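Quick illustration, no need to memorize.
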Amino acid sequence: MTNLLARRGPRPELAPPAAGPRPVIELAGVSKVYPNGKAALRDVDLALGEGEFVFLVGPSGAGKSTLLRLLIRDELPTSGQVLIDGQDVARVSGRGVPRLRRRIGVVFQDFKLLPNRTVRENVAFALEVTGTPRRLIGPAVERALSVVGLNAQARQLPSTLSGGEQQRTAIARALVHEPRLIMADEPTGNLDPLISWEIIQLLLRINELGVTVLMATHNADVVTALRRRVVALEEGRIVRDEVGGYHRED
């Protein structure tokens, strides 16, 4: 984690070759049909490069949640390939899934913090469950808390924190194991507009460290204001992939 959180700006040693960088994420012809016959995704092609910040938008039922679950191997595609750093997730053994998921930090709308553990303990838990040596956990946690601005709250329980502080804790937990990708699923959905903007600014700063960010959201104002790449899903298909605002009809 030292290298990730010490970085400010592009990493020269990872400058893309002339042929272009390999995508961090790639979906190639991905479809997902559930046993009840519902097609959640239909022939989706999508690639996210290193250091991109991408909004994933679309109405409820468009396939956003299914796409996110495919990336962390909670689901497998019915057809097509889902690749993380060139590795086909469908070919990852059960024992290899935790290693795959360490490449991805996940931030949820409802925080999913352990209520009886302090801020520091919640963040440390992400490393403990992966067998990280104890001597490395403390420094890594302190660095993650510094990035999100919560060192002073490290000993507090989640119930004593504001909604924004709880989400910052969740982001620190997602960041602590040096992921290649932060995947945020409606991270501002339970927050008021001012705190929502602060969380977005934090995700932008993490993106500036070189971490790819994929954020699923219904917040049209944020998407329009930032004018980053927008991938819009509708009925399981990508209907728009461009830099720009959130079209109100999405």
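The chain has eight helices and ten strands.
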